[in-house]
Amino acid sequence: MNNSIGNEMYTLHINGQDRPVKDAWVGESLLYVLRERLELPGAKGACEQGECGSCTVIMDGDAVCSCLVMAATAVGADIVTVEGLIENDPSMAVTAQTITSQITDVQQAFIEEGGVQCGFCTPGLIVAVHHLLEKNPEPTELQVKESISGNICRCTGYGRIFAAVEAVVQVRKASR
Amino acid sequence: MTVAVPLSLAEAFDELSRTPDARLIQGGTDLMVEINFNHVKPANVIALRRIKELRTWHVNSNNTITIGSGVPYQEMETGQLKELLPALAEAARTVGSPQIRAAGTLGGNLGTCSPAGDGLPVLFALDAIVHLQSLESSRDLSIHDFMLGVKRNARTANEIITGVTVPVLDGWQGYAKVGVRNAMVISVASACLAVDKKSNSVRIALGAVGPTIIRCRDAESWLVQQFDLSIATSIDPAIALEFGRRVALESKPIDDHRSTADYRRHAVGVLAKRLITRAYPS
């Protein structure tokens, strides 16, 4: 069996959709493919070396830096970007344009608690926090800190972000 | 450029014989940085991340553990691997961030062979055996013979690193490193210490202070003459200090963009003293 991918098309499974990637150089990072080829600019590109976490996506259940994933090697993986964190109409391809009205509880808490300043790190943090709370609905302060240790924010000093995580934990706890 | 995503080792060797010049990629945390910064443009890439055989580990009957080259660091941080190999768990926990630990693997650390690779001092302290396989044959190499220099190893182009085997030791073991901050940092200097009560020996291996990981054989043999490691519960602070001094003497650090040789030499001495004091609280 030959699974080699040259410069022809390959298909990624993103936010519940099969998304063909056409006429692309196969060495491109998943981050580049999401942003420049699939109209999913939620993941942000900053360091491109896995240090800042602003490009965080969920791949096969793990939070990873999309800048360090060679997109063509992610064939067959289940990828969720910040755009796909909310439930969407499965008949529509999820792009930045199709989701402007709905946000998740984590996003809402970031807004209410002042966890967003310049906003550049926010999508990565939102993905990391969703991932954390899915695995661990009531994390300790240390667990929260460790889980977002790969997401660098230079504005907030993190205090408002921890407050936002705590707010989500409380709201979810009350509604269980 | 082609990218192959084999689902088994057999398929991977098939790809490797088709494209002998291919770069192998595990979690991508090294190679993708080089590609993103245009430092390399590989002609062909074979991704090993979907090969299930490489993503498993098991305990062998002779009290050793074999860890597949594709097991991500996050799996070593918890559970049975943490219980049996606490130094590896500590080292794994210092690798990058949760995102990096979900992707990064021991196989990648071995393939890249950077002296700053956090998994490597543990493998040197435990005298790990590296398993290499090619289409025609397989061989086992001591980690000491595998790592040849800065980013140089004994793997030949037709081989795939399939895993490592390390012993389960009876005795304290741990890993410590110095970096510019607590999280998300590449080692300025690192050390792994492992006590083996059964053979009344101690092993200490240093990272990022030489072209390869350095085992401090002189300091190790000096220490076992000072007290009985298998029965002692505490260490004389003066012995711990002298152990640190002797360990520092065996390091071979350089000045580079991350730190200076002087600081690194000092740092490994402090790390050695700290680790042996954790093993035998004064």
Please tell me about this protein's structure.
The complex is a heterodimer of chains A (176) and B (282). Chain A has helices spanning 30-37, 105-113, 122-135, 141-147, 159-175; strands at residues 10-14, 17-21, 56-59, 62-65, 78-80. By secondary structure, chain A is α+β, with helices and mostly antiparallel strands. Chain A folds into two domains: 10-97, Beta-grasp domain (Ubiquitin-like (UB roll), Roll), CATH 3.10.20.30; 105-175, Orthogonal Bundle (DNA polymerase, domain 1). In chain A, helix 2 (105-113) crosses helix 5 (159-175). Chain B is an alpha+beta fold. Chain B folds into two domains: 2-167, Uridine Diphospho-n-acetylenolpyruvylglucosamine Reductase, domain 3; 173-279, CO dehydrogenase flavoprotein, C-terminal domain (Enolase-like, domain 1, 2-Layer Sandwich), CATH 3.30.390.50. Chain B contains twelve helices and 14 strands. At the A-B interface, strand 4 of A face strand 1, helix 1, helix 2 and helix 6 of B.
Question: Strand count, sense and closure of the main sheet of chain B?
Answer: 5 strands, antiparallel
* CATH architecture annotation name of the largest domain in chain A: Roll
Helix count of chain A? 5
Order of helices and strands of chain A: EEHEEEHHHH
Radius of gyration of chain A: 16 Å
Strand composition percent of chain B:
15-25%
Spatial gap, N to C terminus of chain B: 58 Å
Helix share, percent of chain B: 25-40%
**How many E strands of chain B?**
14
Low-pLDDT residue intervals, each spanning 5 or more residues of chain B: none
Shape of chain B: globular
Strand order, largest beta sheet of chain A: 2-1-5-3-4
Output the CATH topology of the largest domain in chain A: Ubiquitin-like (UB roll)
The secondary-structure class of chain A comes to alpha+beta
Oligomer: heterodimer
CATH class of the largest domain in chain A: Alpha Beta
- Let me know the number of strands of chain A: 5
Q: Number of folding domains of chain B?
A: 2
What kind of sheet is the major sheet of chain A? Answer: 5 strands, mixed
Helical content class of chain A = 25-40%
Largest interface: A-B, 36 and 40 residues
